[in-house]
């Protein structure tokens, strides 16, 4: 993975790429990519409660849904050896 976070006010932008380095399809909370632990960058509770997805491009050209749940960045489903290009924006609580 190669991920960049930028925070301006309450808006956080995440850019970069994530790769599934296995021969299996991954997805759901069990196979999350990372968890945000810094309270300054935590997504708002409303965003997580709704699990609003963001469509992100992949190397294959098929978009995948990404969303936050329990402070974790989760991919809906990513194929074997797939690469996701992140361009996600969300609001924090403060």
| End-to-end C-alpha gap | 27 Å
Give the spatial strand order of the biggest sheet. Answer: 1-2-7-4-5-6-3
Basic shape: globular
Number of strands: 7
Q: Please give the count of helices.
A: 1
* Average residue pLDDT: 91
What is the ordering of alpha helices and beta strands?
EEEHEEEE
Main sheet, how many strands, which sense, barrel?
7 strands, antiparallel
What is the percent of helical residues? under 10%
Class by SSE composition: mainly beta
**Strand portion, in percent?**
35-45%
Alpha-carbon Rg, integer:
13 Å
Low-confidence stretches: none
Structure description:
A hairpin with a 2-residue loop joins strand 1 (about 1-10) and strand 2 (about 10-20). With about 90 residues, the chain is mainly beta. Helix content is about 5%, strand content about 45%. The protein is built from 1 helix and 7 strands; from the N terminus they run E-E-E-H-E-E-E-E.
């Amino acid at each position: 993975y190669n991920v960049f976070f930028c925070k301006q006010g309450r808006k956080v932008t995440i850019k970069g790429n994530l790769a599934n380095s296995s021969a299996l399809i991954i997805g759901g909370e069990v196979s999350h990519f990372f968890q945000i632990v810094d309270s300054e960058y935590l997504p708002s509770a409303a965003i997580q409660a709704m699990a609003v997805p963001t469509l992100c491009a992949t190397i294959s050209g098929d978009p995948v849904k990404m969303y936050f749940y329990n402070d974790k960045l989760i991919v809906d489903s990513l194929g074997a050896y797939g690469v996701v290009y992140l361009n996600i924006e969300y609001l924090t609580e403060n």
